[in-house]
Write a structure and sequence with these properties.
It contains 15 helices and 12 strands.
């Protein structure tokens, strides 16, 4: 059965929200940055992009390119509130809304066409409501599947609307660089180029056997991507696939070398990972520690646990054991902790009294922090860490996971 999929991507979302919230910023080059002293550009307005200011750029580079740029500290609570309003608008046109990130989503409107007349009309209605209600613009891509809809939404920005018809797919992909396809990153692109594959057309015709020899099981998927074939359904929130990993990382305000300092940040990260794991109802056996030195050299080490874990202190002690096994010769600028090899939890309380008390304590602390904000109740070791929180919206963010409190309504 033919499907009609939309991908809606908000334009320069964080910066646009700041400009709408503060009229003095409208028409000015604006960049949203983290709240830590050492940070990068999270996103920039289109006025700033005209000067070459891009996501991931350092503040020094941004000021070199645009001396008059105005820097605004990220307000994640505001962004998630606005995102929730946008997702509610989507729900008025189809129940099949898959939140891809805080500022983009897939919509399957196949079953809604007879209500609204055409997919183009649905797109214009959504764009108009977002503009009227929130003062923001978005780019819409329409195609037979998610892969092509994502490609289409990137074609005409900002405030674009692009429709890819089934009969036009082959011609469109024939000369399209493979790196333009969502899911084919820089390293994969380099490997494909080494095989003489530069366009999607070439990828779609390439030998599956040779690609599987080079890339393993995803070799076959790469060929399908080159042909514009994607059978993945649009999954609403209650249909989404299982959580595979839970992790957090943070760039530190200052380089750290002392074990005690590193350990305190690991405790903070472990608490964040543990809370998310418990919220998702998962436990894991593999803990991974990621370290980035001041020269940006990055590596990860992992350790498999004898039992499934989800409590923050268990994750912390595992990360600490990995740390103690490392020979660190340079100061550290970034740390990350990840829990993987996950299983969904059995909700039955442990039989041992001590284990039951620990479980109940974790749940009680989670309830307090869910109600009053992250780190309202915390380990005493964290009190010496300034700037609590990761200051970054997780890629796993979903509207139902955010509490909209203390946010000024527009």
């Amino acid at each position: 059965m033919a499907r009609t999929i939309m991908h809606i991507d908000m334009n320069a979302f964080f910066a646009a929200v700041e400009q709408q919230s503060n009229p003095a910023l409208r028409g000015c080059p604006v960049a949203v940055v983290g709240s830590q002293q050492r940070t990068i550009i999270l996103t920039s307005s289109y006025e700033a992009r005209e000067y070459g200011v891009k996501t991931g750029m350092t503040l020094y580079e941004a000021r070199q390119r645009c001396p008059q740029i105005q820097l605004v500290k990220a307000n994640n609570r505001l962004y998630t509130y606005v995102s929730c309003q946008i997702m509610q608008i989507f729900q008025d046109y189809t129940p099949l809304v898959e939140v891809f990130s805080v500022d983009e989503a897939f919509l399957d409107v196949s079953g809604s066409l007879h209500y609204f007349g055409s997919v183009e009309r649905i797109a214009y209605l959504i764009k108009s409501r977002i503009k009227t209600r929130l003062g923001l613009t978005c780019s819409v891509g329409i195609a037979p599947n998610k892969l092509l809809a994502k490609l289409a939404s990137d074609m005409h920005k900002p405030d674009g609307l692009t429709l890819i018809q089934t009969e036009a797919v082959a011609d469109l992909l024939e000369k399209l660089p493979v790196g333009e396809i969502c899911g084919i990153g820089r390293k994969t692109t380099q490997k494909l180029n080494q095989l003489g594959i530069f366009t999607c057309g070439e990828l779609g015709r390439f030998s599956v056997v040779k690609l599987k020899a080079q890339f393993g099981i995803i070799g076959e998927q790469l060929v399908l991507m080159g042909r514009g074939i994607d059978s993945r359904p649009v999954l609403s929130t209650d249909q989404e696939t299982v959580v595979k990993t839970v992790g957090h990382s943070m760039t530190l305000q200052h380089d750290v070398s002392a074990r005690d300092d590193i350990a305190r940040f690991l405790l903070q990260l472990s608490e964040m990972v543990g809370r998310r794991a418990r919220r998702y109802g998962v436990t894991g056996k593999t803990v991974t520690l990621t370290v980035r030195h001041t020269d940006f050299s990055t590596f990860s080490r992992q350790q498999i646990q004898p039992l499934l874990i989800s409590r923050s202190e268990e994750i912390y002690h595992a990360a600490l054991r990995i740390l103690d096994g490392l020979l660190l010769t340079e100061p550290i600028r970034l740390l990350g902790v990840r829990l993987s090899n996950l299983q969904y939890r059995d909700r039955q309380l442990p039989l041992l009294l001590e284990e039951r008390r620990r479980e109940q304590l974790s749940e009680s602390l989670d309830q307090v922090n869910d109600r009053y904000g992250e780190f309202t109740v915390m380990s005493g070791h964290l009190l010496s860490i300034k700037g609590k929180g990761s200051h970054v919206i997780s890629p796993a963010w979903r509207p139902e996971g955010i509490r909209n409190i203390g946010v000024q309504r527009w």
